[in-house]
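Repro:
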Amino acid sequence: MAGTTNDMTGIQKLGILVIVISSGFTAMEMGGFGFGLQLDLPVSLAISAAGGGLGGAMLARRSRLLGFVCGLLAGPCGLLGVYYYVRGRQEVWNVELVAVQGAASLPAVGLYHLVCQLLPSPDENPPIPDEGQG
C-alpha cells in the first residue's frame, strides 16, 4: 500500500541490489552460469561479505551498524546457498534463485529483527537526571 511506513526507500532498494549482485551473481559465476570469471571460494566470500555489509547497512531502518553486521552474515549465507543450489545444474530459473537466496539470508534477517526488539525504541525519551539531587 503506497504511503505506509513499510515502503522501501530508494537507498533500501539499492541495498537489495548490492546484496543480489555481490552474493547472487558471484554464486552464479562460481556455479558456471556467469561470464567465465575464475572466482574461487575465498574471493567470492570476501565479495559477498563486503556487498552484504554495505547492502545491509543500506537496508537497515533502525541501526546502520546492526544492518552492516547482519549483512556480513547474509551475504555469505546467500552466496553459499545459491552456489550449492546451482552446482551441477544445467538450467535455473530466476524465481528459484530469489527463493534460495532469500531463504539462505533468513538467519541474518531474523538476527536483525531480534536485536531490534531488544534495543530501546528510538521514540522513547531517555530519562533526564534530576539536577536537584547530587
